[in-house]
């Protein structure tokens, strides 16, 4: 039998494990604090535990299921992409982005993806497998350790040594104040979170737990390609996690081509689910729209999108994302003029609309570029 994985184990489960090992319950709370507050990656670092317990944890439990295979940093050092191998050899990618006042980690929820979106590198891998909750949580803890290693005086450019021994030069001065860990989390890496809903939800609860990592629900965003059952489950879940829905087209004919799952959940049903989410949670929804030159970026398509969203009176925000290039793809990124013209149509219709400033395009770490070393 595999060793129990400590990441994403609930505190009661951890207490039960420790009880079975003849340990008092408070040891579980110590370990929880070590994992999620001190960000310990190794039992040896848990110096408030007895030596014998540290050794038992090292031999009979799995702490970090991720092995760093490769990491790349953008030229300014503010975006870092990590390629990890999981215990069965499957690989995934995670992206960390540092901003002046926050650090955001983009987490993968599956290795590969079955959704087949025509503009996305991950789709070329197909679905290899769902990630466990612990494998998702581990990505956040890796990013947090990276951020902590960057906590240099805010006025000095600096370099950071990660736990894996790599060194990456970063304009760490971009951080106006040192951060202790990642401040924001987006489930927008490889995979469709709602196709792995139960494990994804376990990871969310683990990260949200006030006794553990204690990340606020409003600091988390989940992005879905429009799986209606997942949107409706989230609407009833009672946690104010931000919801982003990838739309990418104003009509079903085009969306069927770009996002094949649209044949199962057409736009009308996706927007109805979004409306339910808004009514039940009182929160707005973000619609993501990747702009591909000549495919979905015409002004008449912007007008159709504006009318569609206005007709539903959805409380929403539209996020335009100029498509990020993939090697060998016949698609082209919309030029800035077309992007701004598209945006202007939506704004003129009274919609809140922004253009996403992409990070890490040169290291294939941007939206739609993650291929986990497999493509
Ligand atoms: S865009 Fe998202 S849902 Fe579509 S194939 Fe890529 S990872 Fe999967």
TrEMBL record:
Residue numbers binding S-adenosyl-L-methionine: 191-192, 223, 246-248, 324
Domain Radical SAM core: 99-362
Protein family per UniProt: Belongs to the radical SAM superfamily. RlmN family.
Cofactor(s), by name: [4Fe-4S] cluster
Domain of life: Bacteria
Origin organism lineage: Bacteria, Bacillati, Chloroflexota, Chloroflexia, Chloroflexales
EC category: transferase
UniProt miscellaneous comment: Reaction proceeds by a ping-pong mechanism involving intermediate methylation of a conserved cysteine residue.
Catalytic activity: adenosine(2503) in 23S rRNA + 2 reduced [2Fe-2S]-[ferredoxin] + 2 S-adenosyl-L-methionine = 2-methyladenosine(2503) in 23S rRNA + 5'-deoxyadenosine + L-methionine + 2 oxidized [2Fe-2S]-[ferredoxin] + S-adenosyl-L-homocysteine; adenosine(37) in tRNA + 2 reduced [2Fe-2S]-[ferredoxin] + 2 S-adenosyl-L-methionine = 2-methyladenosine(37) in tRNA + 5'-deoxyadenosine + L-methionine + 2 oxidized [2Fe-2S]-[ferredoxin] + S-adenosyl-L-homocysteine
GO molecular function list: 4 iron, 4 sulfur cluster binding; metal ion binding; rRNA (adenine(2503)-C2-)-methyltransferase activity; rRNA binding; tRNA (adenine(37)-C2)-methyltransferase activity; tRNA binding
Protein name as annotated: Probable dual-specificity RNA methyltransferase RlmN
Family matches, as Gene3D superfamilies: 1.10.150.530, Aldolase class I
Gene from which the chain derives: rlmN
Cofactor note: Binds 1 [4Fe-4S] cluster. The cluster is coordinated with 3 cysteines and an exchangeable S-adenosyl-L-methionine.
Alphabetized UniProt keyword annotations: 4Fe-4S, Cytoplasm, Disulfide bond, Iron, Iron-sulfur, Metal-binding, Methyltransferase, rRNA processing, S-adenosyl-L-methionine, Transferase, tRNA processing
Subcellular location: Cytoplasm
InterPro entries: Aldolase_TIM, Methyltransferase_A, RlmN_N, RNA_MTrfase_RlmN, rRNA_lsu_MTrfase_RlmN/Cfr, rSAM, rSAM_sf
EC number(s) stated in the UniProt entry for this protein: 2.1.1.192
Species per Swiss-Prot/TrEMBL record: Oscillochloris trichoides DG-6
Binding site for [4Fe-4S] cluster: 113, 117, 120
GO terms for cellular component: cytoplasm
